[in-house]
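Q: Here's a chain of 514 amino acids. Please give me its 3D structure as tokens.
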Amino acid sequence: MKKIPDVFHGLPIKRKLMAMIMATTLTALLLVSVVSVIYYVAEARRDMVHDLQMKSGIIGNRSAAAILYDDRKLAKEKLNAFSEKSAIEISCIYLPSGEIFAFFSVRRDENPCPKAPEYGHFFSKNSLKLYQNIIVNNERIGSVYIESNLSEINGNLLRYGLYVILLFFIVTVISYFISSKLQKVISDPISHLVDTTKAISGSGNYSFRAVKASDDELGVLVDAFNRMLTQIQERDKALHYAKSDLEKRVQERTRDLEEAKEAAEFANQAKSEFLANMSHELRTPMHAILSFSNFGAESIVSKTNEEELLHYFSRIRDSGTRLLSLVNNLLDLSKLESGKMDFAMKKGNLEKTVHSVIGELQALIRAKNLLIIVNPPADPPIATFDQLRMVQVIYNLLSNAIKFSPEGKKITVSIDSASAYDSAAKEKLPGLAVSVKDEGIGIPPGELGKVFDKFFQSSKTKTGAGGTGLGLAICMEIIKEHHGRIWAENNQEGGATFTFVIPKEQEDKKDAAA
């Protein structure tokens, strides 16, 4: 069996504090309850003795005449009339000689009265027994013996015990609630100190400082901790200066190596600029290919014997469109990752944006005979976002849903103006949410966390559905720039749901940059 210190050894400090507060409170309550029960039993017994003494006096007064006139029947009637309406089980009237004059009993015994009862009262396990004299004109004419059960005391004690148990439960709940609040006074500063220590050990940055919350012992500990960090930081700076001086000496002796390194970095920079320029240059001829293929296709439509040439031009246009989309995606992703993409944050209605994208995709929707359902929110979905980039996100999500949905199926777009629940993270996110739910092939469970990676294609999409693996990565970057979150999950009935949440208010990045 574990000792109490061993049980508490692995608990967080806030749990230890809560346990100590609750243990102290419940122990005090238990002691008070025990004392209260003992006091109640003592008072209840005292009151019962007093009550039984009064009853025996009443019985003696009522039976005095019967004893004086030797009327046993009248005495028995008095006993029966008085005892039947109370908890008295046995009542007996004795003559001064000790002879039983009359008795009452709820039992079937022929003579339940004791022969020589002790004067006074005493408690047995289940009853109270009382014996006292009947005095008339200062003369003892007889005595009364009464035996009463303890059902009333026991019943009251049981109810009192139930009340104590209920009170114990209520106090436990209240104590837990109060201790969970009070422990923060001690645990929060300690947790803050621990978090600061972890941050310093993880980053090696000794410029962090713990925040002092009080002037007690914890405040003294925080001051000492911060002074220690200052000393370490000063020594770290001295070490850094020594290291810098050593690096300068090494650099002087390895000048040729540094020049070679600079040349290599220059070459690498030149390569990056070349690739960027090539991506830009590829866009211009792609526009030309698309324009001329469109002109050729439109000119040939009227000629009935040029169908094959029309087919070639159409292929050129499709290939050019696909290549242009790839180049555009590469350029957009490059700008997003480098932080060079401009965002025009303005208030807008996200529901209108969804409907405008659905309008652009009507040709694809009709081609597959799909049903698009839009579930609008209760309140207008007004938020601050970049209209062009948000169109790009919704377009990618809807086009993916259309691409992977069988003919005749349904796609549901739901808009929530309050929040969305991320089932993977098990977290409810406040903000403006849009989800696109399809009835397609779904996503393998092991690939749910990878669908937003660059150039990633699901194993279920490698059968001819196409895609470059950039669309969802771009969506992820755009939503990040909006300080939101996007995720994917599979539906129980089949298909997948893509959801993103953005805050309703955004900072205008152009204004922030200015």
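Q: Can you summarize the key feature?
A: The first strand starts at residue 88 and ends at 94.
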